[in-house]
Structure formats: C-alpha cells, structure tokens
Amino acid sequence: MDRIRKAFEHALAEYLPGQDIVIERPKSGELGDLAFPCFRAAKATGKNPAQMATELAAQINLELDGAELVAAGPYLNLKLRPEARAREVLGGLLGDRPYGAAEKNGQKIIVEYSSPNIAKLFTIGHLRSTMIGHGLVQVHRFLGYDVVRLNHLGDWGTQFGTLIAAYKRWAEAENPQLDLDFDWADPAPDDRRTPLFRLFQLYVRFHAEEEKDPAMRDQARDWFRALETGDAEARRLWTWFREISLKEFLRIYDRLGVGFDTYTEGEAFYENKLSDTVKALEAKGLLQDGERGARIVDIEDVGISTPCMVVKADGGSVYATRDLATGIYRRDHYHYDRCIYVIGAEQILHMQQVFAVLKKLDPDWFTEGKVIHAPFGLISLPDGKMSTRKGNVIFLEDVLDEAVTRVLAIIEEKNPDLPRKTEVAEMLGIGAVIFFNALNDRVKPFTFTWDRVIALDGDTGPYVQYAHARIMSILRKGASDISLPDHAQFDQHARPTTQPDGDKTAFIQYKQVNFKAIPFDDSTPEPVGLDSPFAQELLFELAGFPTAIRLAQEQLQLAPIARHLIVIARAFSGFYTNCPILKGDFEDPNIQRWRLALCVATARALRQGLFLIGIEAPEEM
RNA sequence: GCACCCAUAGCUCAGGUGGACAGAGCAGCGGCCUUCUAAGCCGCAGGUCGUUGGUUCGAGUCCAACUGGGUGCACCA
C-alpha cells in the first residue's frame, strides 16, 4: 500500500505544485483505499473543493494497475479494484517480514515502567504502568528502535524503617522467616501464603497502630536512619525484604509475560549519587534557599509556580532528588534518544518539575521531547481511592484469578472437550484483563468494577482471540497446502522472558506459514473469490493496521492498536459468516485458496497486534 | 486560592494534525445454531456532543468565560 500511496502523492504533487499533500484513509473501504481531502488545496487556488475533486479525478492519470480515482464530494479517493486490493494487502501481510514492522533505525529508547514498591503486593493499579510500559516497549521494537526496559524499583525510603520496625515488633520473635500465618491477622489465601504477603500485613498493621501511638513513627524513622548509615542489621533485613518481594514480582511478571533488562537500578541504586546531583545543581547556580532552610530550584520562568525542592530543611533528600540523579545517570550511561516514563497522571506536576530542572542543568541534552512522561489515569474503587496502607485495595492476582475462573466456567459450558483447558483459560482470562487495560489506556481515571474489567463479550480480548481461534480451526481443517505456524515456536517468540538477557525479538516470526500454492511475486495470479464487500472491508481494515501501530508509537498509548484489533476481528466475523471458505461449492478451486490466504493474513495481523499489547492467542478455545 | 486533566446515547467509551453521515460495546427489545467454534452474526430503539460566546467557508475537535467532576500544589514517595 505504501507503493500506491507514494504514486498517489507524486501524481497529486504534479498537479498541485507547492502544496502540502496529506493523504488519509477513507472512513470505510467502500469509498476507496486512500483519500485526498481537497479543502486546503481548493482554498489555496480559490476553487470549490468538490469541483476540484472532480477535475483532478478526470485529469490525473495514475498509471497504476487496478487503481482508479473517484471524486466523492470534496474528496478525491483512490480506489483499488477488488483483485488489486487483495493482491496489495495480502502481499504485504504474507511476506517474510511482520506486517508493518520497520527496519532498525539506530535509535535507542529507554522505558521506565511498573516500578512497584518493595513489600507491597501488586494491585490492579500496577497493571496500568506494567502493561502500558510493556506495550510501548513492544511497539518501539516493532518499529525498529533499540529498547531498554527499566524497572525503577521502589526499594528505598522511609517505608523501610516502617517495615523493619514492624518486623522487629511483631515477627522476629515468633515468625522470623515470615513463613507462618500471624494469629492477629486474617490468614493468607491459599495461593498467597508467601513471606511477602505477611510483610504486607506487618506494614498495614504498623500504619494502623501508629495512628494511636505516634511514638512508633520515631522508631520507624530511627530504623531508616540506621539503614542509611549502613547498620548491618538494617541492611540485612532490607536485602531480605527486597529479595522476597522481587521473587513474587517476578512470578507475576512471568504470568503477565512481561520482563525487564534490569531490576537493580531502583531507588536504592541512586542513593550514593544524590550528593553529586546536588553538587551539580549547586555548580550551575540553580539552587536557592527556600522556606525553613530547604534548598530549591526555581522554575517559575518555565511556567511552574511550585519550585522543585531538592534538599529538605534537615539536609535529607526527596523524591525529586532521586529522579534528578536518575535522569543524570541515564544520560551518562545509556546515551538514549528518548526516555519514556510510564507513571500515573497524578504525578504530572512532579515529572514536569524534574524535567524542567534537568533542562536547566543540561539544556543541550535534555531537549524538547527527550524525556517524556506517558501518564495514565488513576483507578479508584466505587467507594473511593485505593489505599495500600488502609488495606482497601483490589489485588492484581485476585483479578487475574477471577478472570481465569470465569473463563473456565464458560469453557466447561461451551467446549468441555477442549484440550489444555487450564492454559487456554489463563490466556483468555489474563488476555481479557490486559486488553481492557489497553483499550482504556488514557489519562481519564476510571472506577474499578469486576464486571467491567473482566468482561468477556463485546469489545474484549476474548472477542479478538475468538476470531483468531476460528481462523485457526479453519486452517487446521482445510489448509492442506498451507503449513501452520509451529505452536512452540510461536510461544517462544510471543512471551518475552523475565530474564534480563532474554527475549530480544519483538514480533512473531511466521516463517512457518508458506503459501506454496500462491507465491507473492510478479507471477502471482489475480486473486479470485475476494470481491465480496465483506472480504473487501476486511482487506481494507487489514491495510490500516500499520497506521494504528504507528499512531500508538506517536501517542505513546496502546488504545489505537486494541481498537483496530476489534475492527479487524469484527470485519473478519462479517467475512466469516457471509463467505464460505471450506464449505463452499467453488467452480474455481483458487477461490478457496485465496479465501484461506485472507484467513491466514487476518490471523497473522490479529496475533501480531495482540502480541504487541502483551496477549497470547490460543489456537482453539 | 492556583495549576493540570476530564465532560459525547440509560451505562462505559471511540471520534490523530478542524472537514465525507456523531460511531462502538454493554444494558433493553426482536431475529439467526441439520453447513467452516452462537465467547458469534443480523435488526430495532436510544444523542440539543456540559453551558454561553468567539475564530473559520466549515467546530464534538481550536480559543475564552462559566458550570460540574477528578488530580496535584515543597520537607511522603
């Protein structure tokens, strides 16, 4: 389609010299494959847009086989004949390269995402940063960028004082390994009898009790100070807490199919870099005295009235200090082209402050767009904000488990003989949750309800997966001259591992799918059997898939991909119900071949898109 | 008080750089399983795009003010 777009652009440029030629996609495939809105050009030449479209349609000779120009009101549309469209789209989708993927472009992107706090359990809120970040990683790799995946672990701070104090108070004596249930707390659910869960219980209890006994706060502070000054006992517990937390995190990442290149560059990593950061700011003359002796950077000149505090009155560091140190370290260590922070929208001001200070510190490096915040809206509960401290949260694992349970019930009802039920249920249940997140990937906050997040009908992950499974079923039954993708091979590429040096491949290799009967080269015969409006609409939507991926990269959000997957799946359903593939009575056997080719192309696009947002596609469901 | 974000069908949301008729899903009602998976398909019904002005040939989209909601505003992260 790129080839045709270029030819169209060229032809238009010839007739409209000196004008910006912007080519769009029509609203539907019925109108054409490409559209040129004549408004601007008409205005520049003082013509009526509709008249101009008519004139251009008559004048321009495209010299493209199978393409015609049609004036539709103020639009000049390029419309391919059904056969030409089929050839064009299928040729792109059934080639060696993943559809819409780009060559390496030499640019390096680093993405910081997930970044959970040690000793806390993943909530539904963590899904946002984790999966949006993962999706952005996939999309950038797909488009040819080198990507570094960073997990900025919350492994430092006063909460460690809290944890150590709580551990000392309630656990050390009778439950030192945290391997027993506490008699003062609800027992952990069966599948969550982990040290991390009990650590979390300690944390919640401490916060509850310190309300009544403020002296406990001092103990927590003291322990954190001990940790900062290198006290051996504090250090030992910190290391251990970090370990048991990370172990659980990795298990969940594995379940989600997410991974990172490093887990070591968390907040603790930057502790010994803070004083240098402050010195660098000092050297640049950026630090000023603030209230009560705090040290601040004034950023009013860039429109931010709240100054960025870097040093507290007591000389301690704050969040911003760590983020500044992080920014500097990454500049020196990664030499990136762009650094993306996938962090909640409630931190917009904070990120603006940090970016503003970084720009003052090194305007040559931190240019516009060099560091960028990809924010997402907060998830709240029907009765208010989630609070880990208060314990009114929805845990991510509970959501995933519930989704899988609901899917299993449906499988038992509709397809009880399905092989590998548990695995399929896992793919579908988790897919539903992840897809919902991708579809709602936006700045608007939303209220969590079980039925919304785990919906299985309508515009959902399972809807897309279902379309894919139906195709695979057809191919199993009828595609004797099409070799199917090897499932093991697919899994290997589809699931990025949690190993730092693991997965480097962002897209599925489909070398296993070969069209022996219909090679795509100049000798490829005219496609037949695809002139139905349903087939044509499906082809049109498949053609729009690369645009959706590029849009996702530009906007740093996954919604365009999720939405387009729905559109493709819906178009396929139309094709599926209206155009027989295996059961048809074809006078020309090539009709069936070409319809099968369209099926393979669709499956490939669906899998690829699901993969980009982090979802697996079972072959049967 | 100041800043940022948001406001489209009963509900949840789409509507890249203003432009082809404001579209989906859910919920509701009515059809479709002796043919490739009914987790599906088809149809019906449902909207003064928060309000008022402005810019423009053209505004759901841009600007201003207002109303309503969310978030943030230096010694927590």
Note the main attributes of this structure.
RNA-binding, alpha/beta, four-stranded parallel beta sheet, 621 residues
Proportion of beta-strand residues: 5-15%
Q: What is the strand arrangement across the widest sheet? A: 5-4-9-10
Please summarize the sheet with the most strands: 4 strands, parallel
Molecular shape: globular
- Kindly state the number of beta strands: 13
Catalogue the unreliable spans.
Answer: 483-518
Counting helices, strands and paired strands, the structural category is alpha/beta
The N- to C-terminal Cα distance equals 33 Å
Proportion in helices: 40-55%
Tally the helices.
21
As a whole number of angstroms, the C-alpha radius of gyration is 28 Å
Mean model confidence by pLDDT: 87
Could you explain the architecture of this structure?
The structure is a single chain. Residues 483-518 have low confidence and may be disordered. By secondary structure, the protein is an alpha/beta fold. Helix 5 links the parallel strand 4 (108-112) and strand 5. The strands form 4 sheets. A 4-stranded parallel β-sheet has the order 5-4-9-10, sandwiched between helices. Strands 1-3-2 form a 3-stranded antiparallel β-sheet. Helix 4 (82-93) crosses helix 18 (533-543) and helix 19 (545-555) runs antiparallel to helix 20 (559-578). It has helices at 2-15, 39-45, 49-59, 82-93, 124-142, 158-170, 195-210, 215-228, 232-256, 274-283, 319-334, 348-361, 396-414, 421-439, 450-453, 461-478, 487-494, 533-543, 545-555, 559-578, 589-613, and strands spanning 34-37, 67-72, 75-80, 108-112, 146-150, 287-289, 295-297, 308-311, 338-344, 371-376, 379-381, 384-385, 446-447. The two termini are 33 Å apart. The chain binds one RNA strand of 77 nucleotides through strand 8, helix 11, helix 12, helix 13 and helix 16.
